[in-house]
Specification:
The protein is built from nine helices and nine strands. It is of the alpha/beta class. The structure holds N-carbamoyl-L-aspartate (NCD).
């Protein structure tokens, strides 16, 4: 039985396959409409979500399957003190596959050790978010036509932003990838990502706090929200939350084929005036998320 806890649980070839299936789903959705008949996906969200949970549910429904779950810990037996392991054991009896989001780093990994059905990590604290990364890879593949030879700017909360950590981990496996890491001093990428992922793989990267400095070199600009829920004090959050606001003038030197991504939700980090720019891909990106999750569910349930 396979789980998806970390993006590296999938080989590059398997990711290619998922992208191919997702593109086929987009082309011919009718072929997939009954693939998961009589199968049930449980979404256990111990932390808020809109896109991730609803796109998982939409994915399963479009595969002809069923969905059940909860969207906040307060409405589950966690509020009574039940352990994650017990919850997983129970829910595994009602479902064939589980997507789980949890504020604690490593919770989905622990769950997977106890589970009788495949577990998908739908975000664990400030750690990882592999299905957002699959969404990002499908978006890059569709919008840029390649996953190699890219200079990628990652901007905002690189410290707590789990989507950034998973995306870097995934991208270093493709050739000629360079990163521009744009963040305020306090929200820099964690040392373990630099040492164990970037440096170990001899990846070229620059750290800066200036969003415009390397704008002209970027093929992708990945904006992120300052992760309010991971801050220890409100004051720091308030000081940092509007550090970057991408607007038309900041894009002046950007390439004409830049792709602007954001995992969403957006707070203030992209001005709404950018939404009409043909380079803005973030709403399309959210749509791609459903198709890649359809491909992932099929893979983990071993349905051809
Ligand atoms: C991201 C997350 O939950 O980490 N959102 C998402 O899954 N689309 C990013 C965020 O919350 O800022």
């Amino acid at each position: 039985m396979r789980n998806l806890i970390d993006i590296k649980d999938l080989t590059v070839e398997e990711i290619d396959e998922l992208i191919t299936v997702a593109k086929d789903v987009m082309q011919s959705p009718e072929k997939y409409a009954e693939k998961c008949k009589h199968k049930t996906l449980a979404t256990l969200f111990f932390e808020p979500s809109t896109r991730t949970r609803l796109s998982f549910e939409a994915a399963m429904l479009e595969l002809g399957g069923n969905v059940l779950g909860f969207s906040e810990a307060a409405s589950s037996s966690t509020a009574k003190g039940e352990s994650v392991s017990d919850t997983i054991k129970v829910v595994g009896g009602y479902s064939n596959i589980i997507a789980m989001r949890h504020p604690k780093e490593g919770a989905p990994l622990v769950a997977s050790l106890k589970s009788d059905v495949p577990i998908i990590n739908a975000g664990d604290g400030g750690h990882n978010h592999p299905t957002q990364t699959l969404t990002d890879l499908l978006t890059i593949s569709c919008e840029k036509g390649r996953l190699d030879n890219l200079t990628i700017g990652l901007c905002g909360d690189l410290k707590f932003g789990r989507t950034v950590h998973s995306l870097i981990t995934a991208m270093v496996r493709y050739s000629n990838i360079k990163f521009v890491l744009i963040s305020p001093e306090e929200l820099k990428i964690p040392e373990y990502i630099k040492e164990e992922i970037l440096e170990k793989n001899h990846i070229e990267y620059i750290e800066t706090s200036d969003i415009e400095e390397h704008m002209d070199k970027l093929d992708i600009l990945y904006m992120t929200r300052v992760q309010k829920e991971r801050f220890f004090n409100e004051e720091d959050y308030v000081r940092l939350k509007d550090y970057y606001i991408l607007n038309k003038s900041k894009l002046e030197k950007a390439k004409s084929d830049l792709a602007i991504l954001h995992p969403l939700p957006r707070v203030n980090e992209i001005a709404t005036e950018v939404d009409d720019d043909p380079r803005a891909c973030y709403f399309k990106q959210a749509r791609y998320g459903k198709f890649i999750r359809m491909a992932l569910i099929l893979k983990l349930l071993e349905i051809k």
